[in-house]
What we know:
Elements: H1 4-11, H2 26-37, E1 48-52, H3 56-63, E2 78-85, H4 87-90, H5 95-103, H6 108-125, H7 132-156, E3 160-164, H8 169-178, E4 187-196, H9 211-214
Antiparallel strand pairs: 1-2, 2-4, 3-4
Amino acid sequence: MENKFLDAMMFRNACKEFDSTKKINEGDFNAILEMGRVSPSSFGFEPWKFAIIQNEGLREKLKAFSWGAQGQLPTASHFMIILARKKKGMIYSSDYIQHMLDYKQLPEDIKELYGQFYEKFQKEDFKLLESDRTLFDWATKQTYIALANMMTGAAYMGIDSCPIEGFDADMTEAFLKDELKIDTEEFGAAVMVAFGYRKDEEKREKSRQELETVTTWYD
Length: 219
């Protein structure tokens, strides 16, 4: 039986260089963004923001400290930095969390209980308050769900992508603050991702471990 989702997974490769003459149309890219927007996140708190860098001058500045994006930045149809919220927004007592609790339009007693669960989760279950970095890294994990959904969804539409962690985090933080005017007390760079159409039409076979190697059943 045909599995179109698995076909899309097999189609997707980390594209190192795109065909710069081919651009993703607005409707298709908005669909990719929507796939990110509706992605699941822990407690449903959506700790992400998607910054799309289309300006060539900004891309050139990024290139100086993004060693993993040298081929993608000049050629990608769309280039994105996925931001994750830091402690300021993600700690249980923050204005942002209160906003998200209100946004869910829960009954007051349920909202209070939900908030208590989240506080316990941070303090005791996952011990997320040990450092600011611990909480940021936890938020970053959520953004990778949106990242995966956008890349797989793009592949389903025949659009290529490449996730990128090859960048200097401190210099990227300065770029966010100085060039994009992003509040870096609220947000940090989680990961980058480029979208477009592959330049090389030759299909590369996936190199993955066998299913039996990565799977253990406990019946």
